[in-house]
Amino acid sequence: MPLTREQIAQRIAQEVESGFCVNLGIGIPTLVANYIPIEKNIMLQSENGLLGMGPFPRESEVDADLINAGKQTITAAPGASFFSSAESFAMIRGGHVDLTVLGAMEVDEQGSIANWMVPGKMVKGMGGAMDLVAGARNVIVAMQHTDKDGKSKLRTRCTLPLTGIKCIKKIVSDFGVIEITSEGFLLVEHAPDLTPEKVKAATEGKMTISPNCRPMKF
Amino acid sequence: MSSKVYDNAALALKGVQDGMTLILGGFGLCGIPENSITMLSEMGVKNLTCVSNNAGVDDFGLGILLQKRQIKKMISSYVGENALFEKLYMSGELEVEFCPQGTIAERIRAGGAGIPGFYTPTGVGTLVAEGKEVKNFDGRDYILERGIRGDFAFVKAWKGDKFGNLIYRKTARNFNPMAAMAGKITIAEVEELVEVGQLDPDHIHTPGVYVQRIFKGVNYQNRIEQKTVSKG
Fold this sequence. Notes:
The complex is a heterodimer.
Chain A: H1 5-13, E1 21-24, H2 28-32, E2 43-46, E3 50-53, E4 76-82, H3 85-93, E5 99-103, E6 106-108, E7 113-114, E8 117-118, E9 122-123, H4 129-135, E10 139-143, E11 154-155, E12 170-173, E13 176-181, E14 184-190, H5 196-201, E15 207-215
Parallel strand pairs in A: 1-2, 1-5, 5-10, 6-11, 10-12, 14-15
Antiparallel strand pairs in A: 2-3, 3-4, 6-7, 8-9, 12-13, 13-14
Chain B: H1 9-12, E1 21-24, H2 34-43, E2 48-51, H3 63-67, E3 71-76, H4 83-90, E4 95-98, H5 101-112, E5 117-120, E6 134-137, E7 140-146, E8 150-161, E9 166-167, H6 176-182, E10 183-194, E11 213-216
Parallel strand pairs in B: 1-2, 1-8, 2-3, 3-4, 8-10, 10-11
Antiparallel strand pairs in B: 5-7, 6-7, 8-9
């Protein structure tokens, strides 16, 4: 069995170090926050202008002037700050955000990512994704390994319009944890119910199985 | 100094004409200049180029100008919440320049700050880079992006004084401070308009020099796109 969305999020949470400033994208990345222990004292960055995002508000606290980048109502955590969009992206582009987690439609063996456009079908815009992949010191992609027809989303080369080139270092998919190296994909952990060979067989891009490849732990 | 204070949106928006470039603050429906957008709709000005991170929703924000086909071109980063936008774009009725969110913010800031262009790593190797100069600094490629100025800029602030000093509230700040800098004429609408001297200078986000006209807005809806609450 491949991992659930929650398990992907849980595994990514292990990558978050104490004191990190982290930007979490929409979808599975948002769930990562649920698995980061409070003792790690991390600050969540929301690119619409908030560092120190808190949980969803109680009904009585809902404030139209306090939303996250997904336009959801949220709260500000102790130590939070508000700022303009230019300041927010100075933080992002300037490499001050320690970790970005975002979703993808495709990632290729060079670490290029496509997640904003399907020509002729989905044209919503890239939002802040291009800035985030160009600027964060560390970008982790949370994604499904294959599409609903079983076709690999870890490609030799991305086929969809790119969000960024050669910027992804790590993928956590429902099949395993994959690092991007100069040799292509390197499988370092596999979903407990899948063999490394099975993960490799489901991957279009060039994949090497690390000699130390082990089952994922949660 | 003649007064910057106008009694209402109708008086403040005098001079906005067909074919102009407008810069608007706001993120989603948060911190958008609601009164000015309503007035643009009532004025019926057409062939507008609108620079705004988003395009509102079908029946609110810039969506109401799209409904009346007043916008010729949008420069935006994300328009996912607006079905009409997608339809007009796909059919070719609306011209769209997709621009990464941080790049739009910086283009507006640069325009307002007298900087005609700047190099950014964002978008290198993507569709966004097409036709743009690429320059290598210290081993990394960057693309040249241009500053933007508008004939008019529209911003929404929480409090303002009669000189045009502005204070925004929480994440309603977003694109408003940059938009304020980049209008040949910047029109600020505020929830509360106070006398000069009543705002603490240490708390001002936008100094009044950027603002040419200011009015007290009315009937704010402060609409929420995604109301999410925690249990308990």
